[in-house]
Amino acid sequence: VVSLGGSVTDVVADGDLLFARAVLPGAAEVRPGDRVHGGVAVRTHDTEILVHPYSYRVLCTNGAITAFAIGSRVVERVEVAAPSTVINAVLEELRAAIRVCAAPAALDATVIAMRSAAQREADVMLQLMPMLPHMPPGMRASLVRTIVRRFEAERDASVLGLANAVTSVARDTTDPETRWRLEELGGEMLARLPERPKPVAPALDMVDAAYSSASVSAPAPH
Q1: Residue-wise pLDDT tens digits, 81-122
Q2: Cα 188 from chain centroid?
Q3: Is 120 helix (H, G, I), strand (E, B) or coil?
């Protein structure tokens, strides 16, 4: 990252778990005065190292992870006791994956998606409810309500506005897994725009209705 002119801005390491984000110098404007820097997000997950493009909005100090980007890479982990040649090969593969996600093309794709999202009206239920199975059961209701409140408070009814509400909650979340999931959701919203956006109001009423009518069960981890 340093060789690319960037800096590592966030690292959480706990045993064999790692969450890390880096921001690069390359930037572009989504809207006038709204600059976005490219970056890279890395985490360990079971036997894998996941490497994704990362974007950082200076105006909001929020980050989004584009887990479904073409540049995303998965590097297989090895045991600490593996031969040094094997470990070095994995590290080199990891460096190569970081370079791919740090390429200017990754930022270009993110900025194009953000500009498009800024022109599309968000559908809160369609775009927010799928996140629930991936959130801790005891936090789902509070997370959704916090996101919707921030979304409505900003008065930006676009998909970009909703994604920003999600990533702002991620920014203020202390649990590294939950933060990662929220930043992934923000990136996914930008990558998968709805074909037919619908009116968002009253978003909080729709959230209450969803919780009163059905409960969401958590799937197996992925």
Answers
A1: 899 999 999 999 999 999 999 999 999 999 999 999 998 999
A2: 7
A3: coil
